[in-house]
Each structure stands twice: as structure tokens, then as C-alpha cells.
TrEMBL record:
GO terms for molecular function: L-allo-threonine aldolase activity. Belongs to the threonine aldolase family. Its cofactor is pyridoxal 5'-phosphate. Residues 84-313 form the Aromatic amino acid beta-eliminating lyase/threonine aldolase domain. This is L-threonine aldolase. The keyword Lyase does not apply. Coiled coil: none annotated.
Length: 416
């Protein structure tokens, strides 16, 4: 997927058309929109799902839920924020405390937060080069913004589908001012290094006189894999970006945490980038709800994802699927990839039909992986959330068999 295309996550959110098509039977923009609406309606109405989608439900229902849950974490009789005071300031204080950093600043988007962070570090280090993975978010999903807007350059410690090693960081041929680590590395399969590897990589960057920035959009869900608290993890970095709608279920928004003087500078650049929004209280309120309700549950989701992945592996083998991949084999977080040897559009359609006919959502949008993925395959991302905690191994296998029975290519070959 190029930087000019929608991310797979956005496609999932809006019920997109998988591998760039217009959906089953669709031939134009109107057909594609109708197909997206159909999918969203099916996923929202489904009684059984592994997780709630980011846009499942109606506006009225989501507003009512925010009012109910928000009253448990903040005084709703207070005034809305104005340019980041009030509830937004409260969220910033809470985020800094949760991460163990001196200060934090709220941003309307993670893209803006990271561009500001990397720009600030370039000015402070005197080096405009950022070392990061070639599938990291700024490289793949931001339309070349680092170079176009801030004049920053990038180098890649590795092209392997995993985080870089300490040795790779030490052996980079040219100097860099910032090492950016995406934790977990989403496009490679939500993969993480071990704790010792992460410590070594951070030390290697500092041996090169570079600072360390964590793209922690999903950092919240990393504690189980590392066996460390969020402050212990965040302490390895000079600055950390976190998202409030990924993992925590907020409406939108992000935060940049780090030293107080760094965050103060980031606030100035936030204003210059157009991020000084007049009122952001709905996003801030939903973020506080996420920190209070979802954050403590994430270790349970991660543990349950291990069971779901194992049940899928067993079910696919029992069904005689000619080739499949669960990646990572044991999930590092509550999200992982599933690969199958069928067309993306047919797999997406099979999942929608299962939601419509059985009220079950196992998989949502599938995509053609592109290079270096095997030709003729498709990949999807599985997220295990609160609804998925009610699923046992047999529930997963039963849902899988129902899904496979609806895959057109499999049906032509004899079904399950």
C-alpha cells in the first residue's frame, strides 16, 4: 500500500472494499458506497463478534454511551474546553502520569503528533535524518509528509518484517538524529522485540548520539509481551506518541509525552500545524473513558488472543485448508494477522454474508498483501476485544467453519 492510499485500518473502519475493488457486484462509486453501508450495517447488527469495530453503532447510540460512561470519569456539569483547557488539560496530565513522563500534549491526530515530535528532535539534535522501519507509519501512510513539510530524511536499519536489532542500528552507514521505533510494528503483523532486544536497540541509538522516539500508537497493549509496566517501557524513549482511538476505543486524538521543555516546544508547533482546535471535549472525554475502562482490560484481551489464534490454526488445519498463516504464531498483542490462499473480495464477502445470515463476525475486510506476500493470497487483521472474551475455542472453530463454507473459491473446490 502506498503512502497515497488509505490505510487498511481506515478501510476496515468504513467497511472498505478489500483489495481495491468495488465489492461484490459493484462497478462504481455509488455501488462501492452502498456496499460499505451494507457491511457496516451487518457488522453493527451482528450479535457475536470478537471486537467492536471503531464505527459500529449509530450516532445516537454512541452519544448516549459517551454521556453514560463519561459521567463516571469526569464532571459533565463543567464547561467545555476552549483551546485545550479543562478536560483536555486533565487528559494530558493523566496521560503523562500513566506513561511516567513529565508532560504530555493532546493532538487531534497521531500523524501531526509524530511529525511535530520528529521535527522538534531534528532541531535539537542538529540532524534531520530519522532512522525507522520502511513499513513504519510515516513512511507508508503519510504521503511523504516528513520530507514535504519538515525537510526530514529517513534511513532504514532493516527491511526485514520485524523491528531492527541493536547491531543493525550500530551499523547504519550514515548518522541520524532520531531512532523511531513503532511498537508494535503494525504492518509487519503487530510484532514486538523482546524486552532485552528493545533495551539494546535504545542503547545502540544513544551510542550513535541519537534520541529515541516511540511510535506507541498501540503501546497500551504491549505490557503483557514485555512483562513491564507502561512507565518502564516509556522510560526507554526520550518521547512517546500514543493514540486514544487505537486500543482504547476513543473517538480520535493522540498525545505526545516527554520532557516538559520538549512538550512545550511541541505545543508551539502544534499551533503552527493547525492543531490548536477550539473545542475537543468529545474526543478528550472518550479518551479518559478509554484510560479508565479499556486500559486495564488489555492484558486479558492479549491473553485471549493467544487462544483465538490457536483455535483458528487448529480449525484451518482440520478443514484441510491448503495453505494458511497465523502471524505471529503466538500474538504479541491482542491483534494479529490471518493469511489465506483465496481472493480478498471473496473472503470479505464471505464474512459479510456470515454476519448477515448468522449474526457472527469473525473476519472483516481482507486485502491483497502485495510484495513480498505470496501471490494469490489475502490477509486480514484480527482484533480481540471485550466481546471476544465470551468466545471459547469451539466458538472460534464453529465461526471459522461457517466462514469457510461461504468462501466462493473453497466452495468450488468442495467446501468444508
Amino acid at each position: 500500500m502506498t503512502a497515497d492510499e488509505e490505510t487498511g485500518e481506515a478501510e476496515q473502519a468504513r467497511g472498505g472494499t478489500g483489495a481495491g475493488g468495488t465489492g461484490a457486484g459493484g462497478s462504481g462509486a455509488g455501488d462501492a458506497e452502498a456496499e460499505r453501508a451494507r457491511r457496516l450495517a451487518a457488522w453493527t447488527a451482528a450479535r457475536r463478534k470478537l471486537s467492536d469495530g471503531p464505527v459500529d453503532g449509530t450516532l445516537a447510540g454512541r452519544l448516549a454511551r459517551l454521556a453514560e460512561e463519561g459521567a463516571e470519569v469526569y464532571d459533565l456539569d463543567g464547561s467545555p474546553d476552549i483551546y485545550g483547557d479543562g478536560i483536555v488539560a486533565r487528559l494530558e496530565e493523566r496521560t503523562a502520569a500513566v506513561l511516567g513522563h513529565e508532560a504530555a500534549a493532546f493532538f487531534p491526530t497521531g500523524t501531526m503528533a509524530q511529525q511535530v515530535a520528529l521535527r522538534c528532535w531534528a532541531g535539537r539534535t542538529g540532524n534531520p535524518v530519522v532512522a525507522l522501519h520502511p513499513v513504519a507509519h510515516p513512511e507508508r501512510h503519510e504521503r511523504g509528509a516528513l520530507g514535504r513539510l519538515s525537510g526530514l530524511g529517513t534511513v532504514h536499519p532493516t527491511t526485514e518484517a520485524r523491528p531492527p536489532t541493536a547491531e543493525e542500528v550500530r551499523e547504519l552507514e550514515e548518522p541520524f538524529g532520531t531512532l523511531m521505533l513503532e511498537l508494535p510494528l503494525r504492518d509487519a503483523g503487530f510484532v514486538l522485540p523482546t524486552w532485552d532486544e528493545l533495551v539494546a536497540v535504545a542503547e545502540a541509538a544513544r551510542e550513535r548520539d541519537a534520541v529515541v522516539h516511540f511510535d506507541g500508537a498501540r503501546l497500551w497493549e504491549c505490557t503483557t509481551h514485555f512483562g513491564r509496566t507502561l512507565p518502564e517501557i516509556a522510560a526507554l524513549a526520550d518521547s512517546v506518541y500514543v493514540s486514544f482511538y487505537k486500543s482504547l476505543g476513543g473517538l480520535s486524538g493522540a498525545a505526545l509525552a516527554g520532557p516538559a521543555d520538549f512538550v512545550a516546544e511541541a505545543r508551539a508547533w502544534r499551533h503552527r500545524y493547525g492543531g490548536q482546535v477550539f473545542q475537543q471535549w468529545p474526543a478528550a472525554l472518550s479518551a479518559l473513558v478509554g484510560l479508565e475502562r479499556e486500559l486495564p482490560r488489555l492484558p486479558r484481551y492479549t491473553a485471549h488472543a493467544t487462544m483465538v489464534a490457536a483455535a483458528l490454526r487448529e480449525g484451518l488445519a482440520e478443514a484441510g485448508t491448503p495453505w494458511f498463516r497465523i502471524h505471529p504464531a503466538e500474538p504479541h498483542t491482542h491483534q494479529f494477522q490471518v493469511w489465506l490462499p483465496y481472493g480478498a473480495d471473496g473472503l470479505t464477502e464471505a464474512g459479510v454474508r456470515q454476519a448477515e445470515e448468522d449474526g457472527t463476525v469473525l473476519f472483516r475486510v481482507w486485502d491483497a498483501p502485495g510484495a513480498p506476500g505470496p501471490p494469490g493470497t489475502a490477509v486480514t487483521e484480527v482484533t480481540v476485544g471485550a466481546p471476544g472474551l465470551r468466545w471459547g475455542p469451539q466458538d472460534v472453530r464453529d465461526a471459522l467453519y461457517g466462514f469457510l463454507a461461504r468462501v466462493p473459491e473453497r466452495g468450488a473446490a468442495g467446501g468444508v
